[in-house]
Design a protein that fits this description.
It is a single chain. By secondary structure, the protein is mainly beta. It has 5 domains: 185 residues, Jelly Rolls; 71 residues, Outer membrane usher protein (Immunoglobulin-like); 289 residues, Glycosidases (TIM Barrel), CATH 3.20.20; 92 residues, Sandwich (Immunoglobulin-like); 275 residues, Distorted Sandwich (Beta-galactosidase, Chain A, domain 5), CATH 2.70.98.10. Helix content is 10%, strand content 39%. It contains 11 helices and 61 strands. The strands form 13 sheets. Strands 50, 51, 52, 53, 54, 55, 56, 57, 58, 59, 60 and 61 form a 12-stranded antiparallel beta sheet that branches. Strands 29-28-27-26-25-32-31-30 form an 8-stranded parallel beta sheet. It is globular and about 100 Å long. The N and C termini lie far apart (90 Å). The model has no long low-confidence stretch (mean pLDDT 97). The protein binds 1-methylethyl 1-thio-beta-D-galactopyranoside. 1-methylethyl 1-thio-beta-D-galactopyranoside binds next to loops.
């Protein structure tokens, strides 16, 4: 028996036609109904009684799952119910909301508005049914004039967990329900303006609104024109100040009728595609440095306050972003007002995703099988709702300058219904581009205005850039999947975008982690009782953490997007201005030289460099002799905020060091002993590592040093994990359960010569190695390593020596790349220099604990009374946690520091990539060498 909300032909009742967003002023009244409401929850909608006797209380806006009514559920692609459209589960939970509101006087027209309610709502005023709406993230307005009275009124809203529209809202997020955005009443004069459309270009502001009204246009407080208009009015702006994301100039347009005022802030700009398929904003070629934004909050689910949204957008600007895609539904209109004002280009996406159709049949590979014709996108009965969702978005948001593309939704296959949506949009608004990734995937690229792809490789991107088959801008609606430690490729993607005119940039997936905080621990899919299907921590893929704090990946994106690129050759520094509308003279440019990490004098300049131009500077520097290196550093700042930093190595001569004579070693059956002034070391002949290093009477080691090749796998390592770890009885090298074997260990010419191997459980050794250790009379340990990795072995997470030091080593200093953690494909966020740190600062609070804290290009690491040194540099890692502990934990409260300091002195660590959703790690970032030679020294710092 079909229920009313399962009827795809009945998706609204008495809902007003969509109109441009405004909150009317003047004589009109705005009554925000946010706050405490009465609430009653029912497991089945059929149990809701005529009269509800027992009420709880709930805050509006909110998600009821976060108030103890059901648990959250995270599912990405799978529908959380059978895929049997338009039917939803028979037991359909229902939340009933009720509150009173006062109308001081009954006059004019009265409207009720929802900005977001999931999944659908039945509205009642004073116990009389008003209407019905679905489309969770779209505005819904009802005329309630006939239903209200002067004085106290009652509003009741019945919200269902599911309706047929839920099939169109299969976005990859925590599934929530309730009135989750503002809801309010407007009281307006009879004969008020309905809709307003303001179409600007570079010169004109063209206003369309039915009937007569008074219009005024002002700029920065100065009134430019004030007049009466009838239906349409065009104003030619003298010396127009154009809007762009860098300089978001806005004109104030006010329309008045019947004592009511409607205010709009309008940006003048044009959007075009050049004959080279560049994206032109006001005629200037622009690259989109974007990110995908979901509304998400670690305590409040889908509810973000205006302040929180503003903070997100301001952080994006700080990170040099200029673009946001509203994935995968429209935001509250206030978000768009903020984008206009703060300056961000927007890809505005409507509330459609039907990804779950991929999984409607068992054993069918991941593909969009559109030929089956049973996807909503290709089923005609769903066409009305597709077009309507597009229409509701376009009509609501049409006046925002920030919106440069309309998007038909996400991952829904591609069918006639998309074509109908696109046709409608083209007819309605031809000033913006139309985005439909589904069209590009289906190779019907000309249905949309941009060729849009997600998660393609560098090679595929370059191919799209050069092929003559794609005659439109190429855009990555999703790339650089920012899950966990990463993204490891964002800089390189941007280098490629910059290289080809046709590549207009893209949006990183995604802005922030989606989690639910429970007792201080971030929870994700599978953590909640009653989840019938879940996708684990795949929702924790943000470029910033859920509390909006930054990680190294955040800084890497900032570097990828930064306003300058520099290069340095023969003492000449070139600075290229990547901005599109801003001269670099609006910033301070500073450079300085660092010798062995010691900062030279800073020179701050005001560089007059027009957008897309380069300037060259002679850097005064004469080659010096030093120990670690010489670097030229630059920084770009504005009002105390840093927007860019770059670094270039300068030439230098290395100080000669005199090698000390060798110490005479002694041995017994299992050990080799080395002692001198202020030090005593013990080396195990059977384990092949140091078991004790006493300096000035203090033991430095808390365990035996050893070689290892494993790292606590990152989210992006997930595909490699079966090949590295002991997770499968046939696939892996089992590096996480590795055994060291020493075949030979002798003293020869005062040196320890050792032959050994490393093997995963059940496996043939993966590594055979020779080690030569010389200890000098002063106690310096010189370690030389030559290893061969089994030819048929896959590429490895890392290779290096692990030391377990006592707690005194918790605070340390180093000369290398920092302070942010860095990996071979995520290193632009960190520069080489002298740093101080400690184990607590090295820890990175990834929702799912994993490998973190690597530093590359390290020439000195000083902890406790030991100093690790290498002229060639090594990669190091200092942690409170063992690799094993980090690898086992699934949540942050499952980590157990053992009180020791775990130090890795690595020959190499593989890059991070973004393979959790993106392409495999490119070969050049994999540690896949089969023969390795490396050396380092351990100097003891005993008091002279
Ligand atoms: C793709 C989706 O568009 C996005 O919503 C999100 O799921 C993201 O990537 C992964 O986090 S889905 C992917 C399976 C291609």
């Amino acid at each position: 028996m079909m229920r009313a909300y399962e009827n795809i032909q009945f998706t609204s009742e008495n809902r007003k036609s969509p109109r441009s967003y405004y909150i009317p002023g003047g004589c009109s009244q705005y009554l925000l109904l946010n706050g405490e409401w009465k609430f009653a929850y029912f497991n089945r909608d059929i149990d809701v009684p005529e009269k509800i006797k027992q009420w709880d209380k709930i805050n509006v806006p909110s998600c009821w799952q976060l108030y103890g009514y059901e648990n959250p559920n995270y599912t990405n692609i799978n529908y959380p119910y059978p895929c049997d459209p338009p039917y939803v589960p028979t037991d359909n939970p229902c939340g009933v909301y009720e509150r009173e509101f006062e109308l001081e006087k009954k006059w004019g027209k009265v409207y009720y508005l929802f900005e977001g309610v999931s999944s659908c709502a039945y509205l009642y005023i004073n116990d009389t049914y008003v209407g019905f709406t679905q489309g969770s993230h779209l505005q819904a307005e009802f005329d309630i004039t006939e239903y209200v009275k002067e004085g106290t009124n009652k509003v009741t809203v019945k919200v269902l967990k599911w309706c047929c529209g839920s099939y169109l809202e299969d976005q990859d997020f925590l599934r929530f329900n309730g009135i989750f955005r503002d809801t309010y009443i407007l009281q307006r004069p009879f004969g008020h303006i309905e809709d307003v459309e303001i179409i600007p270009n570079k010169k004109n502001i063209h206003i369309v609104s039915e009937g007569a009204c008074e219009v005024s246009i002002a700029f920065e407080g100065e009134v430019l024109v004030q007049t009466q208009m009838e239906n349409e009015f065009t104003y030619e702006v003298e010396n127009p100040v154009l809007w762009n994301a860098e300089k978001p100039a806005l004109y104030d347009v006010v329309l008045k009728r019947e004592g009511e005022e409607l205010k709009f802030r309008i940006g003048l700009r044009t959007i075009e595609v050049s004959n080279q398929y560049e994206l032109l904003i006001n005629g200037m070629s622009v690259k989109l440095h974007g990110v995908n934004h979901h509304d998400t909050h670690q305590y409040n689910g889908w509810c973000q306050t205006d302040e929180e949204l503003r903070k997100d957008l301001l952080l994006m600007k700080e990170l040099n972003m200029n673009c946001v895609r509203t994935a995968h539904y429209p935001p509250t209109p206030k978000f768009m007002e903020m984008c206009d004002e703060i300056g961000l280009y927007v890809i505005c996406e409507t509330d459609i995703e039907t990804h779950g159709f991929l999984r409607r049949l068992p054993n069918v590979e991941y593909h969009f099988d559109m030929d089956s014709n049973d996807w909503p996108a290709s089923t005609l009965e769903w066409q009305g709702e597709h077009v309507e969702r597009m229409e509701r978005m376009v009509e609501t948001f049409k006046n925002y300058a920030s919106i440069i593309m309309w998007s038909t939704g996400n991952e829904s296959g591609h069918g006639v219904n998309h074509v109908a949506m696109i046709r409608w949009t083209r007819n309605r608004d031809n000033s913006r581009l139309i985005h439909c990734e589904d069209a590009s995937r289906k190779q019907q690229i000309h249905n949309a205005d941009v060729y849009s792809r997600m998660y393609i490789t560098f090679e595929e991107l370059e191919k799209a850039a050069v092929t003559k088959d794609i005659c439109m801008p190429v855009f990555l609606c999703e790339y650089s999947h920012a899950m966990g430690n990463g993204p490891g490729d964002v800089y390189e993607y941007n280098e490629i975008f910059d290289k080809y005119p046709k590549l207009i940039g893209g949006c990183i997936w995604e802005w922030t982690d989606h989690v639910v905080m429970v007792d201080g621990v971030a929870k994700y899919g599978g953590d909640f009782e009653g989840e019938l299907t879940n996708d684990g921590n795949f929702c924790c893929d943000g470029l910033v953490f859920a509390d909006r704090s930054f990680k190294a990946g955040t800084m890497e994106a900032k570097a990828a997007f930064q306003p300058i690129r520099t290069s340095c050759e023969d003492g000449v520094l070139s600075v290229y201005n990547r901005l599109d509308f801003t001269n670099l003279n609006e910033y301070d440019f500073t450079y300085w030289v660092e010798v062995d990490g010691v900062k030279g004098e800073e020179v701050t300049l005001n560089l007059d460099v027009a957008p897309h131009e380069t300037v060259t500077l002679e850097i005064p520097y004469t080659e010096t002799t030093c120990q670690y290196g010489v670097y030229l550093n630059t920084r770009l700042t504005k009002a105390d905020k840093e927007y860019a930093q770059t670094q270039h190595e300068l030439s230098y001569k290395v100080e000669e060091t005199v090698s000390e004579a060798s110490l005479t070693l002694t041995e017994d059956q299992y050990h080799i002993y080395a002692s001198g002034e202020g030090f005593q070391y013990v080396f195990s002949k059977i384990y092949g590592g140091f078991t004790s290093m006493i300096v000035d009477g203090v033991e430095q080691l808390a365990g035996t040093s050893k070689f290892s090749m494993f790292r606590a796998t990152t989210d992006n390592d997930a595909k490699m994990r079966p090949f590295w770890a002991n997770v499968n009885i046939w696939q892996g090298e089992n590096l996480d359960c590795a055994f060291t074997k020493v075949y030979e260990c002798d003293i020869c010419d005062d040196k320890i010569l050792l032959k050994g191997s490393l093997a995963g459980i059940s496996r043939k050794p993966v590594l055979l190695y020779d080690m030569e250790i010389r200890i000098t009379v002063g106690g310096t340990v010189e370690i030389g390593f030559n290893g061969k990795i089994r030819e048929d072995a896959t590429w490895m997470p890392r290779l290096g020596m692990e030391f377990t030091l006592t707690e005194q080593a918790s605070a340390f200093s180093y000369y290398g790349r920092g302070p942010w953690e860095n990996y071979c494909d995520m290193s632009h966020c960190a520069s080489i220099g002298a740093y101080e740190s400690d184990v607590d600062s090295e820890y990175v609070n990834y929702v799912y604990p994993q490998e973190h804290g690597n530093h590359m290009n390290v020439k000195r690491l000083t902890l406790g009374k030991l100093e690790f040194q290498s002229e060639d540099g090594f990669e190091c890692n200092v942690s409170k946690y063992t690799i094993d502990d980090l690898d086992r934990a699934k949540h942050t409260d499952e980590l157990h520091p053992d009180g020791n300091v775990h130090v890795r002195i690595d020959y190499k660590v593989s890059g991070l990539g973004t393979a959790s959703c993106g392409p495999d790690l490119p070969e050049k970032y994999r540690f896949s060498e089969k023969e390795v030679t490396y050396r380092f020294k351990i100097v003891n710092l005993h008091k002279e």
